TrEMBL record:
One of its GO terms (biological process) is tRNA wobble position uridine thiolation. The active site is at C104. It is found in: Cytoplasm. The keyword Cytoplasm applies. This is TusE/DsrC/DsvC family sulfur relay protein. It comes from the Bacteria. Pfam families: DsrC. It comes from Halalkalibaculum roseum. InterPro entries: DsrC-like_C, DsrC-like_dom_sf, DsrC-like_N, DsrC/TusE. GO terms for molecular function: sulfur carrier activity. The keyword Ubl conjugation does not apply.
Length: 105
């Protein structure tokens, strides 16, 4: 198990950099994770997706697939790829502090 220091906290992460304990997440951690993913500003639209990801994980125990994300978050697929390039569900899950969704490669 690896660790990372984010927002002045030492956190356990998995081999791909996902937080092991989603309850340690906060918005400062999200901002640092986003920067690591090449996203240097989290807009209101980013937060809409991030909050949807966290809600789904807390309610169902898994992050939503890209299909569910598109259908239920109110953010269309094209915009998701603009907000979170190269794998929006995976990247949004990482920034949201939840494990990689089951359907992600």
């Amino acid at each position: 198990m690896s660790t990372a220091t984010l927002a002045n906290k030492t956190l356990e992460i998995d081999a791909e950099g996902f937080l092991k304990d989603h309850t340690q997440w906060n918005k400062d951690i999200a901002r640092e994770l986003a920067e690591q993913e090449g996203i240097f500003e989290l807009t209101d639209r980013h937060w809409t997706v991030i909050e949807f990801m966290r809600k789904e994980y807390e309610e169902k125990g898994d992050g939503p697939s890209i299909r569910k994300l598109t259908k239920e978050s109110g953010v269309p697929t094209k915009e998701l790829y603009q907000l979170f390039p190269k794998g929006p569900a995976k990247k949004a899950a990482k920034i949201a502090g939840i494990p990689k969704p089951t359907g992600c490669i």
